[in-house]
Design brief:
two-stranded antiparallel ribbon; 18 strands; 16-stranded antiparallel beta barrel; 372 residues
């Protein structure tokens, strides 16, 4: 595993235009503008499915779909400059390559007309402007990662506690949006955001309707944060009337300096998407626990249940549950090694096995991640 980190560090070094340990130089005092920064991340992993599927594919997984195979998950290079001061402008662009890019690529950019994603992508590319209105109104225009969900697409400035992704991340919510969003801090406790976008994972819209996302973030204490999201809009090809709606709730609570809890709940529906033309519905909840004892070690636990009542999200009308344990060790300040012990269980035999199909899928994986 240490060798994986060394390889990841070497790839990051080749991509970095400056020494890995260096920080972006501070802006010149007389310009009033932030400096352009360069950051990056390299993630690689290996997964093993104890069901020994003949196709060597993990079912219902988001990124860790390949069984018994070493993968280059993601190579990311971020170029950005923060927007500062009244009418200050900035930007951010996330260039990515690897297996993750193939999954989250948006239609109209790096996903072809047949629906196949490419190993190259631009996860984010947007321009920001700070409008001098009240406490400051931030406006972003371009493509950005969705604000829904507890879990994220990994990047240099944030990754998940578990190596594998939840069913909620993969099937309940979108990955990215292209459009316009505005964020405003109402008070030290409350902030809000509104977005108008082409839709779910679409750079080029597939109908004449638009998707609207509203977000309200509450931070009553420095240790507790609750985020409420609502998103609605037509998402099917050439159909501007049948809406897809999702209510998303995320909460994080840091009980102590060494113990944190998380919660994510999603409730979604889509008109005319169920068999027979009815309204399809899906819902799920996930709970998270992270223990960080003193030293370089940490342990993360996730448990969730996801109900796809009509099979509109997973392809099968089912309820699927999972539990995941992720031990972690940090090697220095930039390298993280993680394991992933996971068990998926469905009320239908949807998981491929060597001799047929099963209702459960146990997997093990290891992940090395390097960031700068």
């Amino acid at each position: 595993m240490r060798a994986l980190c060394i390889v990841a560090a070497g790839v990051a070094a080749l991509l970095s235009p400056r020494p890995l340990a260096a920080q972006a130089p501070p802006p010149a005092a007389d310009t009033g503008r932030a400096a352009v920064e360069f950051h990056g991340l390299v993630s690689t992993s290996y997964s093993y499915n104890l069901n020994l599927p003949a196709t060597r594919t993990n079912q219902l997984r988001v990124f860790d779909v390949d069984d018994a195979e070493a993968r280059l998950d993601l190579v990311e290079l971020v170029v950005q400059r923060a927007a500062t001061g009244p009418w200050g402008a900035g930007f951010r662009v996330d260039f990515t390559a690897g297996a993750v890019s193939r999954v989250v690529a948006s239609r109209g950019l790096f996903r072809d007309s047949a629906g196949e994603g490419q190993d190259l992508d631009i996860h984010q590319a947007f321009v920001s402007v700070l409008v001098p209105l009240g406490s400051g109104l931030r406006v972003d225009a371009g493509k950005f990662i969705t604000g829904l969900g507890y879990e994220v697409i990994e990047g240099y400035d944030g990754w998940n506690d578990n190596t594998s992704r939840s069913f909620l991340f993969g099937y309940a919510i979108p990955f990215t949006h292209t459009g316009l969003r505005a964020s405003y801090t109402i008070s030290p406790v409350v902030s809000a955001m509104v977005m108008v976008a082409n839709g779910w994972d679409d750079v080029r819209d597939n109908n004449r309707g638009k998707t609207v996302h509203l977000q309200l973030a509450l931070m009553p204490t420095s240790r507790l944060m609750v985020t409420l999201n609502g998103i609605a809009g037509p998402e099917r090809d050439d159909d501007s009337h049948d809406y897809r709606d999702v209510l998303d709730v995320v909460a994080t609570w840091k009980l102590t300096d060494h113990l944190a809890l998380g919660f994510n709940g999603d409730w979604g529906r889509e008109a005319a998407a169920a068999p027979g033309g009815g309204t399809a519905a899906w819902s799920g909840v996930a709970g998270y626990l992270r223990l960080t004892p003193r030293g370089p070690f940490a342990f993360s636990l996730r448990a969730e249940t996801f109900q796809d009542r009509d099979g509109s999200r997973t392809g099968t009308a089912q309820t699927v549950n999972e539990i995941t344990l992720t031990p972690e060790v940090r090697l220095g300040t930039s390298c993280v090694l993680r394991g992933d012990l996971r068990l998926d269980v469905s009320d239908h035999a949807v998981f491929e096995a060597r001799n047929g199909s099963r209702t459960s899928q146990p997997t093990m994986s290891v992940n090395a991640l390097y960031h700068f």
